[in-house]
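[Meeting: bench + compute handoff]

Bench side (C.D.) handed over the final construct sequence. Compute side (W.E.) agreed to return the predicted structure before the next meeting so the bench team could plan truncations. Sequence as handed over:
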Amino acid sequence: MNGLFHNKEEVTDFLTANREKFQQMLLSEAVNVGSKINDILEKGNIDLLKNAEMLAHYIVENREEELVEFAKIEGIAWAQHSLTLAFKLEWVHAIRRTLWYFLYQFDDQNEDNESPRKKFFDLEKRINDSVDQFLNNFFISYSDYKDELLLSQKKLVENLSVPIIPIASSVAVLPLIGMIDTYRINTLEEKVLMGISSMQIQTLIIDLSGIAEMELDVIFQFEKILNGINMMGCKAILTGLRVELVRKIVDTGVSFDSQVETKGTLQQTLKEHLVLESGVQF
């Protein structure tokens, strides 16, 4: 296979001339992908056959930088459209097998006797290393994109889970809903203290009527948050305390700071503070 190292253009021309046969063999090698090839094209605008030909040319011509960049682009594309990774793996392995077959066909037409064994192993290493490099960069790119997406979604959920809603110039409401676990209570502490500072909140009404459960260690952490609110010159008002939660708090021995007020319902508390702010009776 000596000719492959000195006649890259000839090999590329050979692959181009046999494009249809190359594609047919690819589809027969990757049966599962072949049945989905049109779906992938429609869903992600990804032409697998065209991209397979590009990858084969990059490998044969030893265009490493372009191969790596192509792999990264492919990784992001597959991540953006949530395409099945198993299909991609099957497809690339099919490209590897098909490429080897056509390299053999080319070599069979251009056979020489110069160190055939050494040339074969040199070529084997280069071709397979190139395919593996493509796969590695593809999966890294895919994973990085997914990680960034998950991080942005996580931050969005964090913000939505701590919705500080201003109702007047210095009054805001924090309605808490669902399960408060250790992770969420830490997020709550950060967002509340930063919100008080940035929004210049003097009164924060925390509604707990939507809280389903609060573990013991979370209750202790919640007490610290209330103390922190007070230290920042903000008055905390708790509303909507359920009987079950009150019992649990009492059982823990936690005694909220004397500066913390408790009210029955959020509706009544809002009316009181809106009257104070506007002087309008409801």
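W.E. noted at the follow-up: The CA atoms of residues 70 and 134 lie 8 Å apart. C.D. will use this when planning the next construct.
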